[in-house]
Amino acid sequence: MQNLLSLLLTLLLCTCVRAQETTLPPVFTQAEIENAYRSPMVKTYLTPTRIVWQSDDTGEFIKNSELLLEKSNGQVAVNDPKKLRLISTADHRPGILLDFGRELHGGLKISSGIKPSKEPVKLRVRFGESAMECMSEVGGDKNATNEHSLRDFVIEVPWLGSVEVGETGFRFVRIDVVDAGVNMPLYAVQAAFVYRDVPYLGSFECSDERLNEIWNVGAYTVHLNMQDYLWDGIKRDRLVWVGDLHPEIMTVASVFGNNDVVPRSLDLARDQHPLPQWMNTISSYSMWWLIIHKQWYDNYGDLEYLQEQETYMVDLLTQLETFIDENDSEILNGGRFLDWPTSPDPKATHAGLQAMMILTFEAGSDMMGTLGRPELVTKYTDVAARLRKHTPEGNTTKQAGAMMALAGLADAATINRDILKKDGVQNMSTFYGYYMLEAMADAGDHAGAMDVIKEYWGGMLDLGATTFWEDFDINDSRNATPITELTPEGKADIHGDFGEFCYVGYRHSFCHGWASGPTAWMSQHVLGISLVEGGDAVRIEPHLGELDYAKGTYPSKHGIISVTHFKTASGEVKSLIDVPHGMKIIEVERSRK
């Protein structure tokens, strides 16, 4: 019986694959089929979970609003007498604010019923990642925008029909009638949720529920950004930013495994920025491209794909070497950028770039070994050694301090004590927070890193986040209203009242893939799973800190790795490890961790 079920499953999978190979029906010409692009995205329609606000509670201008919270198939009909009605006059234009329960990517489907006039009805639609963003006007002191994706515009809804509008990141939607003298019957308002339909192969569970939620939110944040390419944001920054890709790709590897959105995005960045251009005009982002390729090969061992990059890699490393002066200091041109909080500090920027140059040439040396270029292995190892002769001075930032520790330019324990733990989670950043956690792990402070995760990333959850944000300052949360509510007098609007650099006010993205670092970090350091040797081996080195247990899964090219770690009464960590056939386990000796 089992063999029969397996055969049926195999046949079903083969049928699905064959079906996907045909982009268009056979009535199209072969040229049309070849020129078509088939998106990997799917669309699902979701019902609102809550009415946050409506302009009228008397029943005069908004009738039966509770019907919006009932599941609908969106199909209009002529014989349904009970509908939501929006009734406008010269003095009142009804509006309603809906909450879909979590951050989504996509648009809105509005279905309208029959009415005496067949004229379409004009509605103003406002999407928001917070309730307050939906209540804003474009521009103004809180900086609401229509950049990258429209989130505030007027549409026409047809008589006895449906319309879909919008392509952005949102959780909330406000709808207002534009004209006077309208009596509009609405069948349904649904979120048209657009996402990549891929399984969550990785998982994480431990004895601390807050860490579990953070792992899941980080995974979901990246999942939303796995569109046709791997974006950094779904409302704003719908672009392939190569530096931002690194924490995202670490999360993709931990949760979704070898997904083609990664090489697709890396190749796009390479092709969009022929040398001597820096990727995204930023020198460090070209270095991240090299570091990512090294990590991706370590995980999956795709030699053919690595060989495709060889010419560009060698030329890029040759270009990078020209930006080292006689004092072995980097003198990179172009955009000199780590992350936004360090951008006004030249000493921090230099320290971080010096460290990144070392990490980049070490990654280059490793990849040249894989590609059979021993002369370049030696050359790039020597370049990294030269760069280590120069120690940047004057850095006090957590971002650059973490990079110096990771590159071996400074002692990790000292950096952790004097810089990373100073002032708690103040002066953190959601992007480089991942490297701060990595540096804390290098210092052996895994318990401290988990405390940082719970306080800093957990601080966003406390404010209603269902995805992690482009930036977060823990000080901003002290008198702030959660994003799920309208801000009362005397309280701060966490979305509209804060932000700097490129993320002032409502322009601030509340779903940014670079903020997902804790998900990858917990899989790698709490579960202790690292793929090595091109994904043919796995290193297991768990760190439970104060946790009683941690268990989870991790995808590999051979299948799913499963681990369970628990503490005995004596404090010793015991493990149950299950790896797929064909993988070697490198288990690090440990006693109490």
What does this molecule look like?
InterPro entries: 6-hairpin_glycosidase_sf (IPR008928), 6hp_glycosidase-like_sf (IPR012341), Bac_rhamnosid6H (IPR035396). This is Alpha-L-rhamnosidase six-hairpin glycosidase domain-containing protein. The model is unreliable at 1-22 (pLDDT under 50). It contains 16 helices and 18 strands. Helix 12 crosses helix 14 (433-442). It has two domains: 44-196, Jelly Rolls (Sandwich); 203-470 and 509-531, Glycosyltransferase, CATH 1.50.10. With 593 residues, it is of the alpha+beta class.
| Sheet of most strands | 9 strands, antiparallel
What is the radius of gyration?
26 Å
Contiguous runs where pLDDT drops below 50 for at least 5 residues:
1-22
| CATH structural architecture of the largest domain | Alpha/alpha barrel
Mean pLDDT across all amino acids = 94
> How many helices?
16
- What's the total number of strands? 18
**Domain module tally:** 2
CATH topology of the largest domain: Glycosyltransferase
* Ends apart, CA distance between termini: 46 Å
CATH top level of the largest domain is Mainly Alpha
Shape: globular
Structural class, from secondary structure content?
A: alpha+beta
Beta-strand portion reads 15-25%
Helix content: 25-40%
